[in-house]
Amino acid sequence: MRQVIQEIKRIKSMMGLIFEDTEDKCLCPDGITKKRECCEECECLDGTKSMDCCGELSKMEILPASNLNLGYDLPDTLSSLPKQKYEVNLDGVPQDLIDSMSDYGINIPLEQAHFLAQCKMESVGFTKTTEMASGNAYEGRCKGLGNCSPGDGVKYKGRGYMQLTGKANYEEYNKWLKEKYGTTDDVVKNPELVATKYAGDVSAWFWAVAGPKYNKNFPHRSLQGTSDKVIDKIGEWVNGASPPNGYKERRQAFKDILIDNSGIYASNK
Hints:
Blueprint lengths: L1 H13 L2 E3 L22 E2 L5 E2 L9 E3 L23 E3 L6 H9 L5 H14 L19 H4 L6 H4 L11 H15 L10 H4 L3 H15 L4 H5 L5 H12 L7 H11 E3 L9
Helix pairs in contact: 2-8, 3-11, 10-11
């Protein structure tokens, strides 16, 4: 708690908010006090503890930045503060994908860039949410994909921006939908819903839920950096081939989406 308080004070000092020094005291149930940081858990002289806050906060005085002697210049406005190292270029990204990233906690720019790059490659630039191949190649693949009956390969071919494939995966996602949303939609009976209503959701689910469950921890792997090695590994997990199909395009998609303010990637400026 003390570290949090100190960091808050440091940030406020950067913005020109200065606290006058006063003596903080914790209020203990027995009336005996012992000096501590305000609102930090207080250890009383009798050994008891209290979370009661101390007296009023110190009087706050707003000073102009010019009055501060920090050894460096402060920005005139918040907009001139240095940008974070990574941002993402969302131009052309469908809104349902953007919403799904928020719903599934895909909110770190580096992870978002990896996620969106794979979606972009698998969906031909976010334009196709149904696999263009017939699905015949998946026929009879009972083990792994769950396509045990004739016609399953075609019926449960890839859909969504990240191409959910196989009856077993449709069944697992269907269970998730009912538990998460309580919906009466059934994507096993109506697989086209995965390509339309749930195209964004299923992609984020595959990334944040299904992947880690089956030893494909996309969020963790994506935070390991921007190298081709990381991009290729994520592509292998998504595509199933090594190297993944279109690995060069996956790399380029990542570089087009990631905005690196340190200047490493600048193709999307």
